[in-house]
Design a protein that fits this description.
- Strand 5 (155-159), helix 7 (169-174) and strand 6 (180-182) form a beta-alpha-beta unit.
- The termini are far apart.
- This protein has a single domain (35-320), classed as Aldolase class I (TIM Barrel).
- It is of the alpha/beta class and 321 residues long.
- The chain contains twelve helices and nine strands.
- Helix 5 (106-117) packs parallel to helix 6.
- It has helices at 16-20, 41-52, 58-61, 67-72, 106-117, 137-150, 169-174, 192-195, 201-214, 232-244, 271-283, 301-320; strands spanning 77-80, 84-85, 95-96, 121-126, 155-159, 180-182, 219-226, 249-254, 288-291.
Length: 321
């Protein structure tokens, strides 16, 4: 989220595979995936806060289609540790390159911004920082703790990297006690090499499982994109894998190609198929399911957190009878 260091003028590196995709065929967007251009007083107010505080948001960096709606409601997902990622995932619009050093004051700056924005629920995410010995886990944890001090009434959701090959990093962040620990699997295992080459499917799955083992009170959340060439059977298997890891909340949304250099959309999945996926996911035991063409990991996160709490309470009451 929020580094006050401006990395815009720094050179970035694009994965060579992305360049090869520049000439790929682009499917025409159907009506159900189209959104209104950002605008409105709420949007402008949020834009001003983000700019004045020198914050980064994943809404902007990832070119989220829901930015207009969310910012109009003064909701934003804050991105820490800079705006340059050490990986080059084929679906992601965040720039790749050598990141700037961490800003030691960033956790406090973020916490003050959360307090001043009077957020009931905040989502904190970050770029991948494979250049750091702990992947940035300590910085992430410090941000959570600073928000707890400055805005104790604010519920905190974190959307984390996988901390691949960083011993002890996940445990450090789990022990910071966020309310929701979110880590996206993004796609099915067979597409990892082309879509998420720097990650490992079963490592990401194990990270989610580790959260529940270490602190069962924390809600866990994960999401996938569809329309990248996956099969329905593969999506079903990912659901089963998530439930085996005791994931509480699954999000399923349509992949949208950020630029011609990124992985192409293989298929636009119609709304009725998303509804069918929601029914299947609920039958598998998820506490919460969000499945629609425009579903994104942090979309309606505050409202969803309240529903998660209510769903868990209802489950406990039912189990006690």
């Amino acid at each position: 989220m929020a580094t006050l260091i401006n990395n815009r003028d720094k050179p970035s590196i694009r994965h060579p595979e992305k360049q090869k995709r520049a000439d790929s065929e682009v499917l025409r967007k159907p009506e159900w995936i189209r959104v209104k251009a950002p605008g409105g007083k709420g949007y402008q107010a949020t834009k001003s806060i983000v700019k004045d505080k020198g914050l980064h948001t994943v809404c902007e960096e990832a070119a989220c289609p829901n930015m207009g709606e969310c910012w109009d409601k003064k909701h934003a997902t804050l991105m820490i540790m800079g705006d340059i990622c050490t990986r080059a995932c084929a679906f992601c619009n965040v720039r790749t390159g050598l990141p700037a050093p961490l800003d030691a004051q960033e956790p406090q700056k973020v916490a003050v911004a959360v307090r001043e924005m009077a957020l009931a629920h905040v989502v904190i995410t970050s770029v991948d920082r494979d250049d750091l010995s702990d992947g940035g886990a300590a910085h992430f944890a410090s941000t959570v703790k600073a928000i707890r001090q400055e805005a104790p009434a604010t519920s905190i959701e974190i959307l984390t990297p996988d901390f691949l090959r960083k011993p002890g990093a996940a445990e450090l962040l789990i022990d910071a006690e966020p309310d929701v620990f979110n880590h996206n699997l993004e796609t099915v295992p067979s597409l990892y090499l082309s879509i998420r080459p720097g990650a490992r499917y079963y490592h990401s799955l194990r990270l989610l499982q580790k959260v529940k083992e270490r602190d069962p009170r924390q809600f866990t959340k994960s999401g996938i994109m569809v329309g990248l060439g996956e099969s329905k059977a593969e999506v079903m298997q990912v659901m089963d894998d998530m439930r085996a890891a005791d994931v509480d909340f699954i999000t399923i949304g349509q992949y949208l190609q950020p630029t011609r250099k990124h992985a192409p959309v293989k298929r636009f999945v119609p709304p009725e198929e998303f509804k069918a996926l929601e029914v299947i996911a609920r039958s598998k035991g998820f506490l919460m399911v969000s499945s629609s063409p425009l579903t994104r990991s942090s979309h309606h996160a505050g409202d969803d957190f309240a529903r998660l709490q209510a769903a868990r309470d209802a489950k406990h009451i039912k189990s006690a009878k």
